[in-house]
Specification:
By secondary structure, the chain is α+β, with helices and mostly antiparallel strands. The protein contains three helices and ten strands. The structure holds 2-oxoglutaric acid and fe (ii) ion (FE2).
Amino acid sequence: ITKRDIKWAGPKGKFKDACSALQLNYYPACPDPDRAMGLAAHTDSTLLTILYQNSTSGLQVLKEGNGWVTVPPIPGGLVVNIGDLLHMISNGSYTSVLHRAVVNRSKDRLSIACLYGPPSSVQISPLPKLVDPSHPPLYRPITWNEYLGTKAKHFNEALSSVRICTPVNGLVDVNDHNNIVKVG
Ligand SMILES: O=C(O)CCC(=O)C(=O)O
Ligand SMILES: [Fe+2]
């Protein structure tokens, strides 16, 4: 995937119309962390998320076969999450990762997420160069604005709600969290 494939991004992209956000998350210490959740399990909608976390751990990703795995904070390190947009344009080759934030019994936690998406009218679809008769498109074209609306409505089922075809040759898209094939 090159800059040419995502013309809306980069120095000559329409930055003024871009859908970018800096999300500041603050999780106060919680005396009963097993009965509270900082941020419920979700995938990020955007292309990539760059995430800073302070020295209190809390970020967890769902790893096939391993359950929830903590991503420990590394001093000076940033976490890069793949979002739904990269999942769709890569035709499922890059997985948007299901993640959540748990709370800590004695320490406050802070994270800063930098999210970047295209202008709302941009049409999202699997990149033509990644699609051929043996790799049919797995996601239907959808405008970014429409996808955000779908995400607001269907939340973690949004990605599978824009899937268009049954996997060929009995192969499943291992990157699809729900494995529910819906048309439309
Ligand atoms: O607090 C965290 O580590 C996760 C934050 C997050 O997933 C988000 O802001 O989308
Ligand atoms: Fe997130």
